[in-house]
Design brief:
The chain is of the alpha/beta class. It has 26 helices and 19 strands. The protein binds adenosine-5'-triphosphate. One of its GO terms (molecular function) is protein kinase activity.
Length: 816
């Protein structure tokens, strides 16, 4: 046999349902009567004893029709044995089963902090359906009890799971029944029944004569459980409480005198007395269940009458009992109905809310469906577009293929044209050689050509910090090209001017040489750039404006610069064909280390692509207002560059040299000053003490140069140079002049073409040029085998000291 706990657990489904549990406490006397009440009232049922005094134990009595005496003895023995076992083995919890075979014990329950909680918990855990327990506390333990007096009983009555049907017993009498129910409706009934207000009382029975009580045989427990009312009292109880019961039963004893009753007083279910031979027989009397036929009064003797009265009394009681029950049920149903109604209302509200939710979800769904439809439509449109673009892609691919083919053919044509171009240039050179005879081989006539890579390296990848100017003909970068400091002018590459034309123009310009014209060192046809010598002291514009805090130019220097510009212009204009500068202004007058001035960009307009009308293209013509002041009004009107235009610009430069003032409105100011004999007021005093007469003469000349009518302007050579020449000489001779030594004119051949400084150790190289020793040695040592000036192959690397030049330099230096 396995664990009894397991056994009970295993049988829970069917057996525990049918088991009558009896809660017994430590008061053995009290517990006995409760236990016997259960044994007597539920014969044939399995009875399980819950020993509820702490710690809580469970005992089970299995079914088996034990004679009450034997049972009594059996139970007492079991308890005692259990207690002994508990003492001996230190058991806290155990299950005891009493049955025909003997007793078994096993632990099933744990200790709780209160007995009543323990009872309720064990009911809940084991789903106990039927429970018998004491109704009174020890101090109230009496048969006269009319309501629940035990704290534990009240607690169990109120708190036990509703499915549990509980009989509360005191001294073998049923005091109160808490109706349990399995189904929901009955649960409601049970909960709604106030446990103590309207108890199903058995005191009526208690008032019946003992014989009569003895004669009341219980209904079969299985059939009486649902009704929850069973009026049973065992003979054992009566024996136990004979004295008390006799007192109570005396008033009705007379009624129960029945000749057929056996001496032990047992009445069978049908009302006929029967004597049972079994020593474990039970006395049972069944109350009239309503099916009994009413007894005829006539012809009845007293005994029959008594029996009838008794039967009627029992019947009446039963009916009253039924009526009470019905009333409880009605009340319970009413309560249930109210609750149902409110639940229904709530459910309706919930339904309404659900409906609204559903409606909302439907609306959302419709919205989403609409959006989905839109997306589908868009998808169709996009698919069409994709299809169209795929067609376009195919078309474009075809076009690209044909364009690539075209490009390849153009490249071929270009390569052919290059070859033709190179042949043409070669022919041109040959022709020039023929035309110029021996002069063609004069060193310096051939301009140097630089690759774009060289230009790029020279300008440090066109580093913005190396940019020194930005003009309408392009940006100017400072650079170090083949160890020479250079200025690189990046001309615009737009327009239709061919490379050949560009190279020719550059070559023509580079051939025009004058000490006061900037030297074109070379070109980079690839990037359409011109490479000039770099002049250390920047432009006249910057020096007049004392940019970077440079000191103002003395009047002697200014007069010399004016004469130098005049000289350069005369030279340009005398060229055949005439080369007008076309854009003369102070920013085009550059100053070398010795403040010798050199014009730059002379004739450069010939290198700029022409616009549609044959003019210089629009972008290159965009003069600023300040620049246009230097422009001949005729030129601004006709866009024709003439020598008179240069005269006009020269007049403006003269005015700036004299006054140092900005060009805008300068002409009017000077005219006004002369007219008001306030000329000295407009003279630039920062230039020193001007010789006033000479200065005023220059001012007159300047105003004449700026005549509107070009024919009225003076001739550069016959008029201006005639006046300027002597002025230049006197300014140089002006011994009192501060820093006059610096103003002297350095013969250009004293200057090293690489370092741009007066040479200290001049050496002649194989190309015939004289260089400063350090410059030419550095050049050759860095692996160069060509001339820095002509780029022609040097025949040898020998360097010969130029003693004659060295002597001339030293003599010149001693003069100052
Ligand atoms: N060879 C050079 N050596 C030193 N500085 C130079 C040289 N060439 C040009 N520059 C500097 O670059 C500046 C810009 O020159 P550029 O001739 O390009 O423009 P601009 O005279 O200011 O205007 P635009 O050409 O539009 O009339 C000059 O003013 C000068 O300061």
């Amino acid at each position: 046999m396995g664990s009894l706990v397991e056994e009970i657990e295993g049988e829970r489904e069917h057996d525990v349902e049918e088991t009558i549990f009896v809660a017994v406490g430590k008061n053995l006397e009290k517990s006995k009567t409760t236990l016997f009440w259960a044994v007597n009232n539920f014969p044939g049922k399995k009875i399980c004893v819950l020993h509820v005094h702490r710690p809580t134990h469970v005992l089970a009595l299995t079914k088996g029709k034990l004679a009450r005496n034997k049972l009594k003895q059996h139970a007492i023995d079991a308890f005692q044995k259990l207690e002994r076992q508990k003492m001996r083995e230190g058991l806290d919890e155990y299950l005891l089963i009493l049955d025909d075979a003997g007793l078994q014990a096993d632990a099933v329950w744990i200790e709780m902090d209160s007995v009543e909680n323990g009872i309720v918990e064990i009911i809940r855990q084991h789903s106990i359906r039927w429970l018998v327990m004491g109704a009174a506390a020890d101090k109230c333990y009496s048969m006269n009890l009319v309501e629940l007096q035990s704290k534990k009983a009240i607690f169990a009555c109120q708190e036990a799971p509703i499915s549990c049907h509980i009989w509360f017993v005191c001294k073998g009498c049923l005091i109160y029944t808490r109706i349990g129910s399995k189904d929901r409706t009955n649960k409601e009934i049970a909960t709604s029944s106030p446990p103590l207000e309207s108890p199903v009382r058995t005191d009526q029975l208690e008032l019946l004569p003992s014989e009569s009580v003895l004669g009341v045989r219980s209904l079969e427990p299985s059939s009486c459980f649902p009704q929850g009312i069973t009026l049973l009292q065992s003979c054992a109880d009566l024996e136990e409480n004979t004295d008390v019961m006799e007192e109570k039963l005396r008033p009705v004893a007379g009624y129960l005198e029945h000749p057929n009753l056996p001496s032990n007083g047992v009445v069978d279910t049908c009302g006929s007395s029967s004597s049972q031979t079994d020593e474990e027989e039970e006395y049972q009397v069944q109350a009239s269940n309503g099916t009994d036929q009413p007894l005829e009064l006539s012809g009845m003797d007293d005994h029959d009458l008594n029996r009838k009265v008794f039967a009627d009394t029992v019947k009446q009681w039963k009916e009253e009992n039924d009526a009470m029950e019905a009333e409880f049920q009605a009340k319970a149903f009413e309560c249930l109905h109210t609750k149902e109604m409110s639940r229904r209302k709530e459910a309706e509200k919930l339904l309404e809310r659900e409906k609204q939710e559903v409606q909302k979800m439907n609306d959302q769904r419709n919205e989403i469906m609409k959006e989905l439809q839109m997306v589908k439509d868009q998808r169709k449109v996009l698919e069409n577009q994709i299809a169209e673009s795929e067609g376009t892609v195919e078309e474009l691919e075809e076009k690209i293929i044909s364009a690539v083919e075209l490009l390849i053919s153009f490249r071929k044509q270009r390569d052919n044209m290059r070859i033709e171009h190179e042949n043409a240039i070669r022919k041109l050179k040959d022709l020039r050689k023929l035309v110029n005879g021996n002069n063609a081989t004069f060193p310096g006539t051939e301009i140097l050509k630089f690759s774009f890579l060289e230009i790029n390296n020279a300008t440090r990848n066109f580093d913005p910090s190396w940019k020194i100017g930005e003009g309408k003909y392009g940006s100017v970068y400072k650079g170090l090209l083949r160890h020479v400091h250079v200025a690189i002018k990046m001309l615009p590459s737009y327009g239709s001017q061919s490379l050949l034309v560009f190279e020719n123009e550059v070559e023509i310009l580079s051939r025009v040489r004058h000490p006061n014209l900037i030297t074109v060192i070379g070109t980079c046809p690839e990037s359409r750039s011109l490479v000039f010598e770099y002049l250390k002291n920047g432009s006249l514009e910057d020096r007049l404006a004392c940019k970077n805090n440079t000191p103002p130019l003395p009047w002697q220097t200014r007069i010399r610069i004016a004469s130098e510009i005049c000289s350069a212009l005369i030279f340009l204009h005398s060229n055949k064909p005439c080369i007008p500068h076309g854009n003369l202004k102070p920013s085009k007058v550059l100053l070398d280390a010795n403040f010798v001035s050199k014009l730059c960009d002379s004739g450069i307009y010939s290198l700029i692509p022409l616009g549609e009308n044959g003019d210089i293209s629009a972008s290159s013509c965009a003069e600023s207002k300040a620049d246009s002041v230097y422009m001949d009004p005729d030129y601004l009107e006709n866009r024709k560059v003439t020598r008179e235009s240069d005269v006009y610009s020269f007049g403006m430069i003269l005015l700036r040299l004299l006054t140092g003032r900005p060009a805008l409105g300068l002409l009017t100011d000077v005219k006004c000053a002369i007219e008001t004999e306030n000329f000295n007021m407009v003279l630039d005093r920062s230039a020193g003490d001007w010789p006033l007469e000479e200065a005023q003469l220059l001012a007159y000349l300047a105003i004449r140069c700026c005549e509107k009518e070009s024919m009225s302007r003076p001739d550069l050579e016959s008029e201006i140079w005639t006046a300027l020449g002597p002025m230049r000489e006197s300014s140089i001779n002006s011994a009192s002049c501060v820093g006059a030594k610096d103003l002297r004119r350095i013969p250009s051949h004293f200057v090293c073409p690489v370092f741009q400084e007066v040479m200290k150790d001049p050496l002649i190289a194989a190309d015939g040029f004289t260089y400063e020793a350090d410059a030419i040695r550095g050049w050759l040592n860095s692996g160069h085998d060509r001339s820095p000036m002509t780029n022609l192959q040097l025949e040898h690397c020998n360097l010969v000291p130029n003693y004659a030049l060295l002597q001339a330099i030293q003599e010149w230096q001693q003069q100052w």
